[in-house]
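Is uridine-diphosphate-N-acetylglucosamine placement plausible here? Inputs below.
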Amino acid sequence: MDSILVTGNGPLNGQIPIAGAKNACLTLMPATLLSEEPLTLTNAPRLSDIKTMTALLQSLGAEVSSLQDGQVLAMSSHDLTSHTADYEIVRKMRASNLVLGPLLARFGQAVVSLPGGCAIGARPMDLHVEGLEALGAEIELKDGYLHAKTTGGLKGAVHEMRFASVGATENIVMAATLAKGTTVLKNAAREPEIVDLVECLRKMGAQISGEGTSTIEIQGVDRLHGATHQVVTDRIELGTYMLAPAMCGGEVELLGGHMKLVESFAAKLDAAGVSVEQTDKGLKVARKNGRVNSVDVVTEPFPGFPTDLQAQMMALMCTADGTSVLEERIFENRFMHAPELVRMGANIEVHGGTATVTGVERLKGAPVMATDLRASVSLILAGLAAEGETTVSRVYHLDRGYEHVVRKLEGVGAKIERIKDL
Ligand code: UD1
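Reply from A.M.:
I modeled the complex. Tokens:
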């Protein structure tokens, strides 16, 4: 398995282009299943998770071709041959469950493997099932698979989710686009990726309002047509690279970045002593003074502080002046990066869903291991700011969510290389 070697190399300066959002692309791709006509996505990120979703759609009989170095995905679901999402693909990536709503809406049936647990928590699908059942689906669990069907098609309904799940909102909204009548989804998730999905569905002919608020209303239509859509900027990649100059010093401009995508995160950086400025091209980030201050963080659904930036923020807090408390409220087991950061000299105590971090002057390089996507990039950030060499192994996690990470960080002066496992 490849690893990444990082050597602390002082301040970082220059520009980093931010890719299209992985999480938006992973819900936009299954939207192709809702129509017989082609759906084209531009600004798609070049990531292994996108390849996994491509393989899943192809296993259902969809055509997916990637053009212009993978940034354009041309998809067609004209001749689907299967409505079963197999365990072998779903177990690799939980977002595979996003084919459930579209398949059910278009064909009246779907069989989707339950994803099972993953490193960061149990991640069940009860909220997806409850929402689709409210639209009239009959769903049962057999042999590890959800078997869903409708008699006479899905019907619009008023449904309130017990928790604002991102994936459940996406599945329910996609299913409701082809249901008979009106669906009102209350306590819906408000993430920018959901707004992006709705904008694309609207281009395909769906009638939806309220995206970005906690009540989304969908007026079902008979069919959806083809469209071309540009994937929104990846706010998690953006936030991750915003931390690079915050941790190492210097000034970095994140091209394509927009404040509205990272408002609560930028507010925390501001409180920590890091300035974030909107420019014509993106966001410019630099420390206001020397060492950053400690700040407390609680992860919450959007517009709160994103769980997907918690590990990276913890890396920043490791060298902050003072003690910070990070509370993880979305996933029950998302502090696996903490013991690895401790190996680099960090002072962190974890109790349940709370991590208390007391900043040290400087981290020290060490061999460390990543256990999930965001944990692995937090270790790279820590390595950039540490004294000496850090080797991050198991980088296949990184390939799921960060394209050209070495090239992007080298471009602003980082000393980083990928060591190929021969
Ligand atoms: C999405 C993102 C992921 C991010 C997460 C929270 C994608 C592909 N992934 O994941 O990067 O970390 O949002 O912002 O977009 N839950 C249930 N029952 C359900 C569904 C979820 O209990 O039916 C729980 C989960 O276990 C978790 C919490 O709800 O504790 C949040 O999950 P959810 O918002 O659904 O996250 P995902 O859509 O899986």
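Short version: The chain is about 30% helix and 25% strand.
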